[in-house]
Amino acid sequence: MRILIREDATLRGLGADFVGTAIDVFINNLRVTQEAESPRFDGELLLITAERGRPEDAPAAAAWRPYVTGSVLCHGIDREHSNLVDPEALTEIGRIIEKRLSELPERLHQRPS
Hints:
Strand order of the largest sheet: 1-2
Oligomer: single chain
Number of domains: 2
Helix content: 40-55%
Radius of gyration: 20 Å
Strand content: 5-15%
Structural class: mainly alpha
């Protein structure tokens, strides 16, 4: 860790305690995701992808098929992945979700009694 902090100005500014904790969190998250078993989602998936700068070998919508019982609907937007949480991107994503929800059958809009 000392080498990381010494060689990287960004990490040096964060301090050894923070960097050490971040490494511990990363290792724990990796362990948890490798051990976790998620049930298959019973429904359709609306997948929104960032198309700008998307690598050619990036996973396609088909990569999600094993995890859902319904269809996988893919909607690409002209954004970079790192900008998906910008206000403009979130507005666009919100419109996509709103449109898809409006297309669902009316019975799905009702709350269970």
